[in-house]
Amino acid sequence: MKKFLQDNWEFILLFLILVLASILRFYKIDQYMTFLGDEGRDAIAVKRMVVDLKPRLIGPVTSIGNMYLGPLYYYFIAPSMLIGNLSPVSLAAFVAMIGVITVGLVWMTAREWFGKFAGICSSFLFAISPVVIIYSRSSWNPNVMPFFAILTAWGVYQVWVKRNYLWLLGLGVTLSFATQSHYLGILLIPFAALFGALAFIELVRKKKPLKKFVFLSLGAIGIFLTLTVAPLVWFDLRHGFINLNAFKAFFTVRQETVNLKVYKALPGLWDLAGQFISRILTAKNDFFGKWFLSGLSLALASFAFLGIKRKNFKNFINQEKGLIIVLAWLFIGLLGLGNYKQHIYDHYFGFLYPAIFLFLGWILTKLWDLKLGGKVFTLAVVLLLTFLSVSESPLKYPPNNQLEKTKAIARLIAEKAEGKPFNLGLIAECNYDDSYNFFLEVWGEPMVEIEALRAEETITDQLFVICEKLPCEPPNAPQAEIANFGWSKIVDEWEVEGIKIYKLTHSLEDEN
Q1: By the number of CB atoms within 10 A of the CB, which of 77, 105, 171, 223 ranks highest?
Q2: What is the total count of domains within the chain?
Q3: Residue 391, pLDDT score
Q4: Of 396, 411, 436, which closes a domain?
């Protein structure tokens, strides 16, 4: 047994890490998963693809700029909904599975680039990070971005270091998926292009044949354009170029959102890096986040100085190409985010999640290789990060039960509608009604969306209003789907777990 443990300790630890990652993501996933308007929108889109056989040319719309992403995310998750008999839980479970696979990819990448110890540390800390867990157990397009981001980094490594140029085609695929997971995936394009250019320059410098590299590079561009741009162009040709116009406006008119002068992001880069580390690495503990940023920066400078002093600069770079990739990944990503002028939410960092854990793995390996004091310090760092993550683990909080609550409200509305056509409205702080619409559509209920240009055809005799925000007065609500119903009066009301549901009909004022 002792010999078996000595020979297989790495894979035993990896197995335990993957089991832990699975528990943290799959435990009561139907109760912990988020199921709001965005998730309902995606579930409706996928349901129509797999049941109604309606292909998609566009994906989710962005929260800022009203631009559409490409449809790849919907095609990616569609089989899971079909297998799961149209249950939203199946979509969340599929994303959770991708999250567990991403933990394995972090281990594989860190091990290949920095060694066994780095692989175990990086994957373990990635597996227990609270923010990473939260965005690994719900079906939402940004949640799969870490998976495609690390595959992109792995492809960059294969092209630049291993000279496996077939991976250029793989980069065309992974960049397409990353970009269509969230538009911030665009920042992976200059990252990949940088190392593609370095690989090309190396071929030129060594006077190697360029034909294969150029051919595969063009193939990668063709794959990216086919998967990412072609569906959107086709959609725009049929809908008056609404996506192209929104994209142009986002980078021209909306200067309050994006700053195109990249150099202006440099002064705020340190604070942004601290914000990133605090949220992702130290479980939103700002005090430790600032100290870790300083400590990681000091450790990087010290180990780089010692490495260059011992091996000279050229040899150090040649032996630390994995580190160069991670640093470029972090720098380009943070520089790009620094040009965004609005609030940066946790999921905006999704394409950088794996990078910071890979970087930490390199630092911890260098510390572990020092004398006894270095090993003790390394264990202290890992224990501290583990304590912070466990202290803020999402499982310590009770589940939100959003899915069952939404389903119960939709079921109540279906029963009270009595099979007759009805309109639906929602009064909420920051949500919309597609989560309810999903169940009503799956059940075949005659819910009709009010269209201003077809009011006579789309306004029914009854309107159900869900009040997630209290107090609310449905007859006086300004929401378009309620106001367009016309003069109305409340004829009945119910309550489901603190949420009020009102039934409205047309009032005499409207009839007169």
Answers
A1: 171
A2: 2
A3: 95
A4: 396
First to last CA, the chain: 88
Residues 383, 431, single domain; the answer is: no
pLDDT surpassing 80 at residue 64: no
Closest CA to 213 of 229, 226, 227, 197: 197
Of 347, 363, 394, 327, give the one whose Cα is nearest residue 129.
394
CA-based nearest residue to 282, from 388, 377, 355, 354: 388
Provide the pLDDT for residue 309: 83
Q: What is the pLDDT of residue 508?
A: 64
Q: So what's the pLDDT on residue 257? A: 66
Q: Are residues 130 and 225 in the same domain?
A: yes
Mean pLDDT over residues 330-346, rounded? 88
Nearest partner of 471 among 487, 493, 452, judged by Cα = 493
Say what the pTM is. 0.92
Q: How many CB atoms lie within 10 A of CB 23?
A: 12
Q: Which of 423, 424, 295, 433 is nearest to 366 (CA)?
A: 295
Q: Is the peptide bond before 471 cis (omega within 30 degrees of 0)?
A: yes
Domain-ending residue, one of 374, 396, 418 = 396
Shared domain for 356 and 474, answered yes or no, is no
390 in the same domain as 471: no
Work out the percent of the chain whose per-residue pLDDT is above 70: 96
pLDDT at 481 (0 to 100): 83
Cα 207 to Cα 133: distance, rounded to the nearest angstrom: 47
pLDDT recorded at residue 512? 44
**Whole-angstrom distance, CA of residue 333 vs CA of residue 331:** 5
The amino acid at residue 315 is N
451 and 389 in a single domain? The answer is: no
* 360, two tokens: 């930490």
pLDDT at position 247? 75
- Residue 98 shares a structural domain with residue 11: yes
Nearest to 401 by CA among 93, 33, 36, 24: 33
Dist CA 327 CA 359 (whole Å): 8
d(C-alpha 323, C-alpha 346), whole Å: 24
Task: State whether 384 and 309 are in the same domain.
Answer: yes
Domain hosting 381: range is 2-396
Residues 365 and 456 in one domain: no
3-state DSSP call for residue 70?
coil
- pLDDT tens digits for range 110-168: 999 999 999 999 999 999 999 999 999 999 999 999 999 999 999 999 999 999 999 99
Note whether 344 and 191 are within 8 A (CB).
no
